[in-house]
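Please, structure for the following, as tokens.
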Amino acid sequence: MNDHQIDLAIGASLKDMRESRGLTAKDLSKAANVSAAMISRIESGQVSPSISTLIALSEALDIPIVSFFKDTATDHVDFTHVKAGQGIRSTRIIDKHSHDYINLASHIRRDISFEAHIVTIEKQDAEPPTYVGHGVVFMHVKDGEATFRYGQREIHLKQGDSLTLDSELNHGIIKVLTDKFTFLTVKAERR
């Protein structure tokens, strides 16, 4: 990507973010203390904005400065399509406990990693593992019931329930209450 293409991409990002907030160039000009003419030149890709101008615009729009560069980082993207009933099937064994899971997605880019699994835990005498990590976890119960621990809190989960949590706190299934407990789990973290 050459310099002019980068300027065009930054300008397009600025215009998208300004318009998505219902702001005119004049409104943004007042909030950021950047002239409306400069905003227009940036949005049309006629000028390379300084870092201080981008900081002022990002603060006025209440967005991270990197948002202006979202379309400049790469000229390629990856995607994965997993058809129904497919995915990578695995069994995790920890001491005497085991559970099955299907890896539906795993995506890593320079700023974030993401993974999604369908996990099935059968009722068993062995204690399930607990986890501590980084980022956020989303769970959606597909079938069954279980008791989930998040820090010192115990949460009763049943079919249809969803749970979102910061994974820095100790968490995990502590007891399966039905013969099987199946849930979708999605984890995302900054790299």
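The mean pLDDT is 88. Residues 109 and 172 are 27 Å apart (CA to CA).
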